[in-house]
Specification:
The chain is built from three helices and four strands; from the N terminus they run ααββββα. The protein is an alpha+beta fold. A hairpin with a 4-residue loop joins β2 and β3.
C-alpha cells in the first residue's frame, strides 16, 4: 500500500492537480503479495523436504466447513501438527478413523502432506521477484522525473 500511497499523497512540491502515479508501481504490489503467498508454500515445501518423515497416520477428526481439515495422530499416538488441509490430502472421501500415509515435519513448522510430488517454487518466485524490482525501479524513476519538473529534489 505504501508503494501506491506515498507517490500519490507524499509531501512534494508538485501541485495536487498535477500529481500522478506511475502505473509501474502497481506491479510490485501485486508481485509482493504473490511472493508472500508462494513464499509461504515454498517454505513449507522446503521444511518438509529437509525434515519430513513418512508415517502412517489416523484421522482423529475432520472439520468440513468450507475447506476440509483433518486432525491426525501417528500410529503410536503422537499428534501431527498442524492439521492436514484439503489441498494436501484431506479430501472429501476421507473420514474419521481412516488411515493415511503422510509426510510431516516433526518440529511442527511445516504442514503435513500426503502428496508425493516435489514441486519447485524457484521457477515462480524468481520472475515475481525480478518483476517487483524492475517495475518498482522504473516507477520510482518516473516519479523522481515528475518531481524534478516541479522543482522537487
Amino acid at each position: 500500500m505504501a508503494t501506491l500511497l506515498v507517490p500519490m499523497l507524499g509531501l512534494r512540491k508538485v501541485p495536487r492537480r498535477e500529481r500522478k502515479m506511475a502505473w509501474q508501481l502497481v506491479s510490485p504490489v501485486i508481485a509482493g503479495v504473490a511472493l508472500g503467498v508462494f513464499g509461504q508454500a515454498a517454505g513449507d515445501h522446503t521444511g518438509i523436504a529437509n525434515r519430513g518423515k513418512w508415517v502412517d497416520a489416523v484421522v482423529v477428526s475432520k472439520e468440513d466447513a468450507g475447506t476440509n481439515h483433518c486432525d491426525l495422530r501417528t500410529s503410536d499416538g503422537r499428534v501431527i501438527s498442524p492439521s492436514l488441509s484439503e489441498g494436501d490430502g484431506c479430501r472429501n472421501s476421507v473420514w474419521k478413523g481412516d488411515e493415511l500415509r503422510v509426510r510431516y515435519d516433526p518440529e511442527g513448522v511445516a504442514g503435513p502432506t500426503a502428496d508425493r510430488s516435489s514441486d519447485s517454487y524457484g521457477g515462480m518466485l524468481m520472475p515475481l521477484f525480478v518483476t517487483a524490482v524492475l517495475m518498482g525501479t522504473w516507477g520510482s524513476v518516473r516519479q523522481s522525473t515528475w518531481d524534478r519538473q516541479y522543482g522537487g529534489r
